[in-house]
Amino acid sequence: MNKTRPIVIVAALLILASLTPAAFIAGGQMDEQTRQGMGLTYASLEAILKDLQTYDTSDVGPAMHLRAYIFSNKDNAQARKEAEAALLKFVQGSPAPAGLMAACRALSLIGGADAVPVLAALVLKPETTDPARYALERIPGPAADEALVAALGKSGGDVKRGIVFSLGARKTDAAVAALSKLAAAKDAALAADAIKALGKIGGAEAIKALSGALGKSAPALKAEAASALLFAAEGLMKDNDRPGAAAVYDRIFAAGLPAVLRQAAFKGRIAVAADPKALVLKTLTGKDAELYAPALAAVPAHFGAGEIGPVAELMGRLPESAKVQLTALLAGYPAETARPYLLSAAEDTSSDVRLAALRSIAKAGDGKSVIFLATKAARTAGAEQDAARDALARLKGLDVDAAVLDHLAKASDDAVKAELVRAASDRRIAAAKPALLALIKTGSAGLKAQAAAALRTLADQGEIPALLDLLGGLEDEAAREAMQDTVAAAARTNPRELARAGEVRSRLAGEKDPGKRADLLRVLGKIGDDSSLAQVRAALSDPDAKIVDAAVRALAEWPTDSARDDVFEVARKSVVLNHRVLAARAYVRMIGLEPYRAPEGAAADLLKILALSPRPEEKRLVLAALVRFPCVTSLKTAESLLADPEVAKEAKLASDRIRNALK
Amino acid sequence: MSQMKRRHFLKTVAVAGGAAVAGFPTIVRASALGKDGAVAASDRIVMAGIGFGMQGPSNMANFLEKPEVQWVAVCDLDTEPLARAKAMVDKKYGNKACATYHDFRELYLRKDLDAVSIAVPDHWHAILSIAALRSGFDVYGEKPLTHNLREGRALCDAVKRYGRVWQTGSWQRSVENFHQAAELVRNGRIGRIKRIEVGLPQGHYDFAGTFGQEALVPPPKNLDYEFWVGPAPWWPYCKARVHMNWRWNMDFGGGQYMDWIGHHLDIAHWGMGWDETGPVEIEAKGEYPTSGIYNSPTRYYVQAKYADGTPMILAGGHDEIWGGTKWIGEYGWIWVDRGQFETEPAGLKNETVRPEEIRLAKSRDHQQNFLDCVRSRGKTITPAETAHRSASVGHLGVIAMEVGRKIKWDPATETIIGDPEAEWLLGHSYRKPWQLPE
Fold it and tell me: What is the pTM for the complete model shown?
């Protein structure tokens, strides 16, 4: 032999090996492969099945590897066949229960005709029936149906029940005769299972058997049969067999069943009725109150925009629950038609009806509903007031804004006016600005505050000088605070952040009156423009206590953490308890503005402020903040408060959460 | 495997601890007569709750604050949270009248109930909920709506069939910043949406403090574990497998992805007006554990495309995708998360939507919204169909991760196009004696 030939052969093999994917070398013998979809690696099937032989679920590895193997190889006909054969041999070898389950799950995906007889034998044994059933349920083709039907006849007890389920899941027509007999079994649980299965299978014969069960069974089984028939009737409707469905619904309806089933059958009757409108009206004028709900539920589907009148006219004769339902569904009808009924319902003696009416007016109302809603909001409280206000805010239609303005000009009742002011704000009616500004000048104290607050959503930076003028003229504290917020909101409409406070700072520089200076300082705090910090800091040492107070509050309200060090100093040094408390709270809030900060640093700062916080209220705030920054310092800090009876509960909660987060 | 006997569901005896199966306080307080602003007992909405592990107590606490609710019973398979739940109700009413139940089927036989609040592991959502609807109760349920897509459709059909009111615990819709963000998007404030990003948590979080307690041991006497596993495939008991941490096992929950899909994806859909539809294509990659007892994906990246061509990314463990919901449009972006709301341009955040524009339903209080709809029989702010459509994106993403290829989806017929193996994964089998009721 040529001495170079072995070298060439070896070289060729080496080259071939380097070209072949490191994984697959020959069928059934695989190096580690990676399953793309699941990111899993797996070895040979033989190795996997060896692990599964004693698999007890304490480690999911073997089952995951089998799954990965199956999904990787099922599209290769040869590999699939080999895998099926290997699995079938495995399941007959008495593997551990969890191993059997894993293998049967795999067989449910790749099993074919060869698998059926093996699984059919396993289905009969109590210890293997469930896994075998899972596989048989999914294997396509009549062989699996036949095997299950045969097994049904050979089994008893729970095994039989499981097979009944699987026949229902497969919708096996061939099982109907056997299941029909079981539907009349003395074993009520088995009978119920058979009834369910018949419902899933459907078809004329199944329906006949179910109708028999409906007529003859004990109440629990009757209800079961009725549910199964409802399901089957839906199948008939899908197949466009309306007469068939109608017969089923009539049968259920007449069977003297609990309300929910009667109502479901009645719903079906409406769906198949030749004249559903007439049936609905007849029902609502009848005495069977149990049917009012399904009749009303059918109204939107059958009564068009111009047809709701006859239904709505029945409002007065319906019981409360039906009135609520009818009122709610009127929301889907045009305002002109629905409004009179809704306005009437909004004065009903029942609060539920009134609430439903207000919510419906939100969708179905128009400009003509405005004064009614504003008056309602002014005269009520709680949920009704909220609903009226919400309706005013959400009413659609260009005539609504005009109606709000019109009534705002005319209304003499301050409470109603206040509601209209609120609506102008909620609806962002820019045209309301002149009226609101006028109210701030000349309205009552309450209205001034309301109007000032309303402008918050409407004013822009161009109006700041005028707003500051108004602020200077307000005496009522609530109105001043509302106006401060409004000026700040107007300033924030300026896209140039560092220019937002310019006008306010200029005013402050020239203002002598302490009260007005205090207001301006508060505004600067609400705007939070960093270029104002120096001015606000300087005010901390003002001889006038009112100014100092305003400066502290301004810093405490600063929207960013730029004022953090300032508030810490106030918390540390101020002789006024209120100021120390405000500052401590602000400090905690500002730490929270940086959720991505390194936890140890944040925790160290929280520990600092905790040392300055003797009151339980601030300690609780610190504990809540510590949870957001889990680290050793946070944990130790939280645990240090376990001995404090006033905050022990919060400290325990915080410690537990931090400890968990650190795991 | 341990087996515990269960009472036959046709028996009606309440478990010890509850005297009044009738459901009204045994001592008639002034509030029962409607005095001092309270709602008269006869006008109250009578409720019960099932599941008091994590979300259940908080949901119940919110309902107990409502004067129009009368809470009469609690149900749980673990006697310890059950006792705590009963104590909470009894403390509220100043008596010991709250009934306790082990088996939800017995609870559902009560004639006095109007509604139930269900907060149980995902694998139980559909069976418990549909049974409640069939019994004539309105339901406050949790997200994700169901454990698989077929269950979701069955639940939506049952809500319609039995004419019940459904609210899903996707409570972000009742929070102002989410409402505002979605309304701005819906009204085109950032123009045509070019892309949506939904950032969800990654990994597994130890809610119960039981990570590491993986030894297979007999279940504790206070927990009916056999019943708890219920319709899911059997998994032997270990402490880390149940209570709050069940969600890291795909047979009981769906990992972080499914846990959060009903929050941030729901908001994404809300902003786009997609409450009754879904994507047309979806592909996904997930990273799965290969050891330990949990098998839900820890990192994931899902790409969905909708009928109008808009792409959506849902990701966990990918820092480039911000947590929460972000809509990126022609003229800027809007991002919203819990306690956070930012826009570009920045001033957009302060804009409001005028009455004549598209106004989204408004709710200030998620539980109150449910109660209002129980009375009006109207649609809640997160009805079943809406919740099903957001959960569907989750289910399809999970399927795409498993099959490792792009899935084409028809949201109208709810079928996977041309992929029978992926279609196979839309539903699953049930361990006896449980099956999905209609």
Answer: 0.87
